[in-house]
Amino acid sequence: MFAPFTLEGQVAVLEPMSPDHAGDLLEAASEDRSTYGFTHVPNTIDEMRLYIDTALKQRAKGNAIPFVVRHRATDRIVGTTRFMDLEVIPLHFVPGVTQSVIPSDATPPNALEIGSTWYAASAQRTAVNTECKFLLLTHAFEVWKVLRVVLKTDARNTRSRNAIQRIGAKFEGVRRRHSPASDGGVRDAAFFSIIREEWPQVREDLLRKLARQ
Questions:
Q1: What separation in angstroms does the CA of 70 have from each of 9, 102, 138, 141, 203?
Q2: Residues 178, 157: contact at Cβ < 8 Å?
Q3: What CA–CA distance (Å, rounded) separates 135 from 180?
Q4: What is the per-residue pLDDT for 98?
Q5: Torsions phi, psi of 175, nearest 5?
Q6: For residue 71, which of 25, 79, 127, 141 sits 20 to 30 Å off, Cα-Cα?
Q7: Tens of pLDDT, residues 136-192
Q8: Residue 52 and residue 19: Cα distance in Å, rounded?
Q9: Taking the chain, what is the end-to-end CA distance rounded to the nearest angstrom?
Q10: pLDDT > 90 fraction of the chain, expressed in percent and rounded
Q11: Does pTM top 0.85 for this prediction?
């Protein structure tokens, strides 16, 4: 399990998620919900409490690090995101040996996903998402020295796919019938990734976007 930590930017601050954030997250989720068609965003206080409890259980297992997003200018919680599917990939192959390491402060992950991201309508298409991705990617590649960061979305979610590509992630393909869909059924998932060698260029591009925003 990782010790809680905060990532601070000029526009947004990523704070460790806690049960106390339920009301603020529900307020953020209660703005215009028309963009949540392919994203699971709780709609009641009980659903939000369960959402947070599930995320914190994943954190306790070492599988995820969930954050809430605070907008500096308004001091409002405007969404949430997380590191998830944390893993340590063995760097040396040993025949007949399977290495299983739970990431921790002592042994950080070298591969992970950034996901479970949603924002209040007022924070969408602003610098908030760009800076949050910049903060998360910087921590992943420059503090943990990861090999790969994955981002994925419902294959039908054109808006989300375009946003992921705008930050510089490369499209890997669609995994069919991958996971439960937020609108019922089973979804196909579009996978994207950024690898360590691509990070310097992605970093420059994100900084340019932030300067324009």
A1: 10, 29, 18, 23, 22
A2: no
A3: 29
A4: 64
A5: -95, 115
A6: 141
A7: 999 999 999 999 999 999 999 899 999 999 999 999 999 998 888 777 788 899 999
A8: 6
A9: 35
A10: 80
A11: yes
Give 115's strand partners.
82
- How far is it, in rounded angstroms, from Cα 28 to Cα 32? 9
Angle at CA 38, nearest 5°, toward 37 and 39?
Answer: 100
pLDDT at 102: 79
The CA distance from 60 to 65, in Å, is 9
Q: Tell me if 36 sits within 8 A of 116, measured CB to CB.
A: no
In this prediction, residue 44 carries a pLDDT of: 98
Task: Calculate Rg over the CA atoms of the chain.
Answer: 17
Three-state DSSP state, 77: strand
Residue 131: pLDDT above 90? Answer: yes
Task: Name the residue among 66, 88, 89 with its Cα closest to residue 79.
Answer: 66
Check residue 127 and give its pLDDT: 95
Q: What are the structural domain ranges in the chain?
A: 7-212
Which stretches does DSSP call E strand in 100-141? 111-119
Is the separation of the CB atoms in 37 and 11 below 8 Å?
no
Strand partners, 14: 7, 69
- Partnered with residue 69 across adjacent β-strands are 14, 79
Residue 128: which H helix or E strand, with range?
helix 127-138
CATH of domain 7-212: 3.40.630.30
Q: CA–CA separation, 179 vs 177, rounded Å?
A: 6
